[in-house]
Design goal:
By secondary structure, the protein is an alpha+beta fold. The chain has two domains: 138 residues, Immunoglobulin-like, CATH 2.60.40; 122 residues, Four Helix Bundle (Hemerythrin (Met), subunit A). 47% of the residues lie in helices and 25% in strands. It has nine helices and eleven strands. The strands form three sheets. A six-stranded antiparallel beta sheet has the order 1-2-3-7-6-5. The protein has a three-stranded antiparallel beta sheet with strand order 4-9-10, with no helix packed on it. Strand 1 and strand 2 form a beta hairpin. The longest helix has 43 residues.
């Protein structure tokens, strides 16, 4: 009953104040898909609902796309599916995502592919796909120029004294952070020549495992867990690039997985179960890097083990065996 109430509230809010971001329709008109946002002009402080609306003939079986914890730069905190009949031969499916933006301004929403199958006997369940083009969401700041103005602030000795003390603490904090960063860079610089000379005769797998061990030895996860996961995912991405010749250091997790799937789908160089493990690892790391999630020591070590297992399992043998298939 509570779930039904939530769905009705969500549906009502979308109808009353939603904005259509992008829409596309198949050539034969059998299926139409669109991204909507509610409220129509979202602010950083709003509860933002992104709705993927798919209207299709009843002869089609539509597979709703699956998203992880992030949609581009938007953190997904809840998702709800609902289906309504427009006519006896037409129905609409909605995937409602409650998202949290990481910043104001323009936030991209990457293209979305929807797979569907024609259930009519004469077509023998033939599969098709419809791609919703990429678009962007404008997030407005809750701070207006008027509220940020200093014109109405009067000078006060107590206020200036408080800010002076506060400013000193900020300076001390910045000095400590700079010293930690300098120490970390110094350690990496001192180890780099030995690493570079030893990597010249190693395989990509051996290099990746060696870098993983050096990262653990640096104990960066005890000082800055966010940068630790940045380095950890960087090692895994570098290893995949070496094995697949994919060069995409700036892609998000969703784009990176999409590119790997597109390049190797016809050769199955990345088996589905291995791709799912990679997705789980990258999305867990994204929670730490972008969603301010603070993992425990055990959760951090679990991320390291997942990276190590993927490096061991995604080997050149997988690719070479597949390339031999006709």
């Amino acid at each position: 009953m509570n779930l039904l109430v939530v769905i009705l509230v969500i549906g009502t809010s979308i109808v009353s104040e939603s904005q259509r971001l992008v829409e596309t329709t198949s050539d034969d008109g059998q299926i139409r898909a669109a991204w909507n946002v509610s409220p129509a002009n979202p602010q950083l402080s709003d509860t933002i609902l992104l709705t993927l609306e798919i209207e299709a003939d009843s002869t089609l079986h539509v597979e709703m796309p699956v998203f992880g914890s992030m949609l581009g730069e938007l953190e997904i905190v809840q998702n709800t599916e609902q289906t309504t009949n427009i006519t006896p031969n037409r129905e609409t499916k909605q995937l409602v995502l409650q998202v949290i933006p990481q910043h104001d301004g323009k936030t991209p929403i990457w293209q979305t592919t929807i797979h569907y199958t024609d259930q009519r006997k004469e077509l023998q369940g033939k599969s098709y796909s419809l791609t919703v083009p990429a678009t962007e969401l404008e997030i407005k700041s809750t701070v207006t120029p008027e509220s940020a103005s200093l014109d109405n602030i009067s000078a006060s000795p107590d206020i200036f004294e408080f800010h002076s003390i506060h400013f000193l603490w900020i300076i001390l904090a910045v000095i400590v952070i700079v010293l930690v960063i300098v120490l970390f860079l110094l350690i990496r610089f001192l180890r780099k020549p030995a690493t570079a000379s030893s990597e010249s005769h190693l395989t990509p797998q051996e290099i990746a495992l060696q870098r993983l061990a050096l990262l653990l030895d640096s104990r960066l996860h005890e000082m800055d867990v966010k940068n630790f996961f940045v380095e950890l995912t960087g090692i895994v991405r570098w290893y995949i690039e070496q094995q697949t010749n994919l060069r995409a250091p700036e892609l998000t997790t969703e784009e990176f997985l999409h590119e790997i799937t597109q390049q190797w789908e016809h050769r199955s160089a990345l088996p589905p179960e291995l791709r799912d493990r990679l997705r789980l690892f990258l999305e867990s790391a994204d929670m730490v890097k972008f969603a301010r999630f603070q993992p425990s020591h055990d959760e951090t070590m679990l991320g390291v083990r997942r990276a190590e297992e993927f490096i061991f399992q995604f080997t050149p043998q997988i690719i070479s065996q597949d390339n031999q298939q006709p």
